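S.,

As promised, the Double cubane cluster run. Input:
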Amino acid sequence: MTTDYRQMWAELGIDLDRHDELLNAIAPIYEEIYLSQKDRPKGMEFFDFVVGNIHGIRVHELRKRAMNGSKVVATYCVFVPDEIVLAADAIPVGLCAGTQFSVPIAEEVLPRNTCALIKSSFGFKLGRTCPYVQTSHLIVGETTCDGKKKMFEILAEYHPIHIMEVPNKKTEAGRNLWRGEVIAFKEAIEKLTGNEIQADRLDQATKLVNDRRRALQRLYNTRKARPVPISGKDAMLVTQVAFYDDVARYVQQVNALCEEVEGRIAAGKGGFPADAPRILITGTPMAIPNWKLHHILETAGAAVVCEESCTGTRYFSDLVPEDGGTVERQLGNIADRYLQIHCACFTPNDERLDDIIRLGREYQVDGVVHNNLQFCHTYANEAVKVERVLAKEGIPLLRIETDYSDEDAGQLRTRVDAFLEMIRK
Ligand code: BJ8
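Predicted complex:
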């Protein structure tokens, strides 16, 4: 792959040497974490292929569309409505920010005590190692947390940026503010693309994005079975790929995978023994290629059955109503749907606590792991409340604070082993 796409990467302004280093680092990790798993569903081959060509085929597709006049809109948060981007014939791409590789580059500018997700995303632009960033015409940022908000100000020195203001409270005033932001975003996208968003296009885009949500809901439902028919690592990878693959193709592939996995359930076949401790992970998102915690848990004998995160249920749980109507009406529906996301940037955010308990019951979990990226204060503080509600429910909790480096892997393993031991007793 490296040879085939070098010309394209050079044209995109990629730092080729650094980029080689990145790809060479990811390949063996993927081999160890993913390809070493036994008896995976055949449908995972598509996702292996996508990751194996992560900076090749899809970037090439985007560039081709861009050459024909389409705009690429890059995002970092599940608050940015893909429906609006697609309705304007632009292409949304969720940028990955899950690797340690780009962190030291970011630290040349940003303070070290900043969350790894923020540093990783910034480092990709600064180091010119992400062809998705380089292909994009606009990055959409948001005001969800202070670190991101201020990072976007600096990122704006390097790339065109549009910022969406996400309210802190889900009050009527907050809802009005957010509805206004969604309208402003629609106008920004229209300006970028030169395409006025029409009601029928918005309706079509809504159905398409809902199809993606439905496909992921279907996949997650299979994980409620005992034994669980697919590893948590694989299920998370499927979710991570959703952020940048073509939506229609992705939906088709996920549904094909679901059919196969449902067949496994009917045959009583599982990826883990039926008595493997069932774990729910909750907390900060895990952007590709952050597979660290899943790998530690699953190689220790646990089965990760659900993720309450933005690379999990928060991404797809709620649909946008598909009842059409004027553009204004649809934008209102879109705004309301996105405002239901239970991000810790809201106060209060009790719906997330309710969700964790509900998911714990539905997926019959034996324990919860609260995954917190270091220096993410909103999730770290909310973990106090998560701990309380889980204690009331009698569900054991392991709180983890980590980053993208492997330095703490040994210590995490020890803590995970002890946690699983306690659950098994
Ligand atoms: S909706 S969770 S994707 S903001 S981990 S950068 S919060 S310091 S990622 Fe998120 Fe949107 Fe919320 Fe979801 Fe800041 Fe915390 Fe870092 Fe975070």
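The first helix runs from residue 6 to 11. The pocket of Double cubane cluster is lined by residues 77-79, 115, 117-118, 144-145, 147-148, 284-285, 310, 341, 343, 345, 373, 376, 378-379 (CB under 6 Å).

- D.
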